[in-house]
Amino acid sequence: MALRGRLAAARGAWLVFEDEAGFSMTPPHAKTWSQRGRTPLVRVRGRSRRRISIAALTCCKTGHRSRLIYRPRHDDGRRDGRKSFSWRGYRDLLIAAHQQLGGPIVLVWDNLNVHKAADLQKFAEARDWPTIYYLPPYAPDLNPVEGIWSLLRRGWLSNVAFSTPEHLVQRIRRGLRHIQYRSELIDGCLAETGLTIRPT
């Protein structure tokens, strides 16, 4: 991590971590308070196969406020439909991040097969602003985006009975916006990986 951090700083680039997670209509369980002897109940309207995938980027750079950039992908409900991002979805996310951050990026992500798709590699090689590194296999503790998912599931999504897929999307967006505006939460997720950004 220290080597990647020095490389990003040397190039004046943003150090960007990526991960994707799926969320369903079934709410995650979390501890809560209740009166003694009264078990709290969360009523769910039945199970649904509908889900939403979110690809998120945590972005850090010395002397700048940490950023969170994300894109949702809705499941169309068809059995044969794609439920996760394609290489084009990741390409579009990287282009949007480059435009928002206004500079080169050093991207660190896992070894998902779509991340290594030939078309995505050709896209990256044809441009001078992205540099891509891969995390070791089975190393979620090195990716700060995992901390973002944990904050979301333990906070805005826990013990909520989602009435519609739109209700689920609304709660996810509300939680991610809250995190976006509080860079100290992103910094905390970065610190959990052992990565620190020094102020200038």
From TrEMBL:
Residues 15-168 form the Tc1-like transposase DDE domain. Pfam families: DDE_3. InterPro entries: RNaseH_sf, Tc1-like_DDE_dom, Transpos_IS630-like. It comes from the Bacteria. This is Tc1-like transposase DDE domain-containing protein. It comes from Streptosporangium longisporum.
